[in-house]
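Please decode residue identities from the backbone states below.
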């Protein structure tokens, strides 16, 4: 992996003697994070922006948040932490307001266009109002709407284009990569089987979502939700999504691959445990280098049909 920085004077800086790095990306996290340690002959100036490449492909584009330089008997050692360009959307608060029948493009235009981001979002809209409360980031305004209306979260590409995640078109096989280890994880502790919710603060929790899948595996874990402050069109989604997200934590897989890997978030991956083949989607990617060499760690989650039913009971 190759790195390029720009300092406070607008001059490029490319570290050559890299001790270690870690580049992490995760579905649901707005920003990718880059941590890099390198040796320098001179004290580097204040670094402002950072880019990372695999070959000629840009895989990270962001801003430097933290920079430390240590001088000791071994020379100068520098550390830099940077977040991807989505940090601009995360760090800036959106004005509290109410949108009437908004679309994803309208929300992009009002919250992201002036910060230099292009729109690659799907054509999503709502026939209801969309209330932005105090303290919501510009990223949160767009992401929450697209997630509720389209079912997948938003991300920002290294080229500063806002998009919604889509499952990979091709099913990739782990055996086609230099696989070091493969772990299968079953976590029953996070699964939610039932959501009881109310839509008015003074009412009882008389609305329910139930996962037949969780109950069929002997998991009974209920949560109560007061959704009276959430717009009407988001209530059922908010309640149901709690069960769906918890089921994604139920059966996971972690793969360690030697060297660099151009796998992307939400890519579909096939793994084999014994004679059984399973399909997962990539939820988190950590690319790193240390004294032991370069590796890529993939955290993969399994899409599970929760057999979810919605009913009302007094």
């Amino acid at each position: 992996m190759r790195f390029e920085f720009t300092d406070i004077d607008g001059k490029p800086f490319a570290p050559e003697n890299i001790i270690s790095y870690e580049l992490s990306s995760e579905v649901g996290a707005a920003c990718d994070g880059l941590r890099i340690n390198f040796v320098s002959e001179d004290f580097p100036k204040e670094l402002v922006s950072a880019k990372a490449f695999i070959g000629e492909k840009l895989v990270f584009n962001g801003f430097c948040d933290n920079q430390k330089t240590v001088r000791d008997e071994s020379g100068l050692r520098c550390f830099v932490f940077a977040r991807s360009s989505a940090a601009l959307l995360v760090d800036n608060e959106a004005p509290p307001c109410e949108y009437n029948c908004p679309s994803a493009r309208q929300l992009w235009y009002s919250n992201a266009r002036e910060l230099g981001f292009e729109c690659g979002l799907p054509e999503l809209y709502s026939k209801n109002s969309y209330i932005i409360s105090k303290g919501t980031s510009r990223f949160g305004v767009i992401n929450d709407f697209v997630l509720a209306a389209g079912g997948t979260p938003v991300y920002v590409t290294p080229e500063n284009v806002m998009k919604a995640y889509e499952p990979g078109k091709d099913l990739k096989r782990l055996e086609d990569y230099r696989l070091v280890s493969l772990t299968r994880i079953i976590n029953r502790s996070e699964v939610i089987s039932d959501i009881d919710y109310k839509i008015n603060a003074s009412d009882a929790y008389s609305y329910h979502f139930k996962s037949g899948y969780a109950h069929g595996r002997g998991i009974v874990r209920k949560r109560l939700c007061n959704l009276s402050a959430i717009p009407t069109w988001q209530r059922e989604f908010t309640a149901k999504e709690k069960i769906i997200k918890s089921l994604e934590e139920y059966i996971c897989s972690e793969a360690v691959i030697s060297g660099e890997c151009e796998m992307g978030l939400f890519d579909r991956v096939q793994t084999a445990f014994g004679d059984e083949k399973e399909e997962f989607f990539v939820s988190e990617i950590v690319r790193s280098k240390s004294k032991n060499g370069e590796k890529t760690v993939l955290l993969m989650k399994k899409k599970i049909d929760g057999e979810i039913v919605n009913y009302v009971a007094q």
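Observation: The mean pLDDT is 94.
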